[in-house]
Design goal:
Number of domains: 1
Largest sheet: none
Number of strands: 0
Shape: globular
Distance between the termini: 12 Å
Number of helices: 6
């Protein structure tokens, strides 16, 4: 992510990585006994959520630097554990889009503040 971020910018690298991650998770939809495999999750909705979460993970990478892998793994684990609590809200397109908009907004604000704090140019959220 950091190499893509440096080469193409925050937004493009998050979108590309989010799309790759949604494709990476396709096998889950063929495993019986999982939310994915039981048809409880629409792949299109899941793909949109992967892209949105990538913005948050991108913000973690920008801020945590060398410890970004551990922080991203920790966030992913916590997110998966907590997602069952909020599953009813995010199982509809309306709820999923609302949650995704909040995630992307918080990510942009976090990266913007980080860029300003450390004297980086905030245009394009580099």
């Amino acid at each position: 992510m950091l190499s893509l971020d440096q080469k193409f910018g925050y937004v493009f690298s998050c979108v590309i990585t989010g799309v790759i991650w949604s494709l990476w998770h396709i096998p889950l939809f063929f495993i019986p006994g999982t939310n994915h495999g039981e048809g409880l999750i629409d792949f299109r909705m899941f793909a949109v959520q992967c892209v949105a979460l990538r913005f948050f993970l991108g913000a973690i990478c920008k801020i945590s630097g060398k410890s970004s892998i551990f922080m991203c793994v920790l966030f992913h684990t916590v997110f998966n554990a907590v997602s069952y609590t909020f599953a009813a809200m995010t199982m509809t397109w309306k709820g999923a889009i609302a949650a995704d908009v909040v995630i992307v907004f918080v990510s942009f604000v976090t990266v913007s503040f980080y860029n300003r704090r450390f004297g980086r140019i905030s245009s394009g959220l580099n």
